[in-house]
Design brief:
It is a single chain. The chain contains 15 helices and twelve strands. By secondary structure, the protein is α/β, with parallel strands linked by helices. The strands form two sheets. Strands 1-7-6-5-4-2-3 form a seven-stranded mixed beta sheet, with helices on both faces. A five-stranded mixed beta sheet has the order 8-9-12-11-10. Strand 5, helix 8 and strand 6 form a beta-alpha-beta unit. Helix 1 runs antiparallel to helix 3.
Amino acid sequence: MRDDTIDNQGFGSSTLAIRAGQQRTSEQEHSEPIFTTSSFVYASAEEAERKFSGEEPGNIYSRFSNPTVHTFERRLAALEGGERCVATSSGMAAILSVALAVLEAGDEILASRSLFGSTISLFDKYLGKFGITTRYVELSDLSAWEAAMTARTRLLFAETPSNPGSEIVDIKGLAAIAHRHDALLAIDNCFLTPALQRPLSLGADLVVHSATKYLDGQGRGIGGAVVGNDTLLEEVFGVVRTCGPCLSPFNAWIFTKGLETLALRMRAQSDSALRLAEWLEAHPAVNRVHYSGLSSHPQHELAARQQDGFGAVVGVEVSGGRQGAWSVINATRMLSITGNLGDTKTTITHPATTTHGRLSDEQKAIAGITEGLIRIAVGLEDLSDIQADLATGLDAL
């Protein structure tokens, strides 16, 4: 029987996105199957003992071993250039699993100020209960990261580009700082995905994903993932196996199929986002556009150097503060007013009252979340239709 399994064996990224990780059953199916089972049976008690002890490889229980989930994990690991991937029930579960795997009471996280609101809440409110402290620095300022390092710092955590301000950090430089102080660097690669950025190749130790976003690409399921070397991922796997924030087989299948079109979607959506950002920058009702693809972006050259594209999320600050932003959002008729992103459908939201609404006014100010800021995640509709939908509200300001 021919072995059609491929991983990162010199194949191109588009080939890996379609074929990596699949292990066909005896039925020799062409498309990846969904193993909707909670457990697996054995031919004998002796076989069961060998599987449970780890003496013999095989599936045991779908909380931590399911063929459909393994296919997604192997495929994403190949795309990110990592040795291993562990899938989780959500992006936040991925971040929590990393923290539980590599930190203990008394340790410290050094993170960027420009983080997703729920990540900040996790670090401050929940990890803080167990003696893990978090301090925050300006994302792009490597000197600030260096100055903030202490003997207790064990994990550096950053989103790049940031949500929704499109700030960038020099991943290679940040990795050097982390490793010089015997700390780990984790990068949230949700906004760019391995189609546009591969943090592990730049020195990061761990890559975190909300698979809910672009890895799926059509807003169908919730999930997350962590990618890195086998040693670190064995600890993350231990958390998922024991604590249970596991990915369902059905959602794993959705994400596996989403990866097949990831590069095509990311390129098309990024191209439209750049053109939309240029159009918005020229509109008289717009005060500022946050998008690293613009030549006016302060870190445009860095973004062009370490990324293969600029992503599809555009932050736009409009006149009139909250009411101005709300009026633009409410005037749309096609765009989806939702806090999610990464969809083929363009989405629009007001971060200060949705995705970052639980932050204090001081935290919002530090993260650059102003009352006039709108986040647009560009989809695959005709760009002229997206512009026309936004123009209704912008022209009225």
